[in-house]
Specification:
The protein is built from five helices and five strands; from the N terminus they run βββαβαβααα. It has 168 residues and is an alpha/beta fold. It has a five-stranded mixed β-sheet with strand order 3-2-1-4-5.
Length: 168
């Protein structure tokens, strides 16, 4: 019986830089497709920056046609204003994915780290090293893109569970 190949989009949201990564999953086999960063202009107002994130994500969804997506949940920091801005960028990512008709799952940062490195409090260097180990052909232009690939990998590992929870 042939394995179904699923194209997964992972998103690491941020107002300045939203990382994205696309992988394909066929059973336990993962293949790197593409990764990058959608940047917004620091000189623009908040609404315009959110539009820049939306437009960038919509364009890559149109180009790469993922079947499923996963977004990293917001990390709540002591800086309320920064957390709110991150939440707005995350909301734009969720909206863009939903408007494209793509199923979306959400994962806590510690769950993503644990899924990829085996440790829930791994550093960015550890995540990048494991992404390179799991997907030797992976290339990424930023730590945000590497984190987004990690989100996609986490979803590939947990997508059956995510579907069962969504259906409950």
């Amino acid at each position: 019986m042939a394995q179904t190949t699923i194209r997964i989009l992972g998103i690491d949201p941020g107002l300045q830089r939203t990382g994205w990564g696309i992988i394909e999953s066929a059973g336990s086999t993962l293949t790197f497709v593409a990764a990058g960063t959608v940047a917004s202009s620091a000189r623009a107002g908040l609404a315009e920056r959110l539009c820049q994130i939306h437009d960038g994500l919509a364009r890559l969804i149109e180009i790469h046609a993922p079947a499923e997506a996963a977004v990293e949940a917001t990390f709540v920091s002591h800086d309320g204003a920064a957390t709110l801005k991150l939440g707005q960028a995350r909301g734009v990512a969720l909206l863009t994915i939903a408007r494209a008709g793509i199923a979306v799952a959400e994962y806590a940062p510690n769950a993503v780290k644990k899924s990829v490195t085996g440790v829930g409090h791994a550093g960015k260097n550890q995540i990048q090293a494991m992404v390179r180990m799991l997907l030797p052909r992976a290339s990424f232009d930023s730590a945000d893109a590497a984190d987004a690939i990690a989100v996609a990998i986490c979803h590939a590992h947990h997508r059956g569970m995510a579907r069962r929870i969504a259906g409950a």
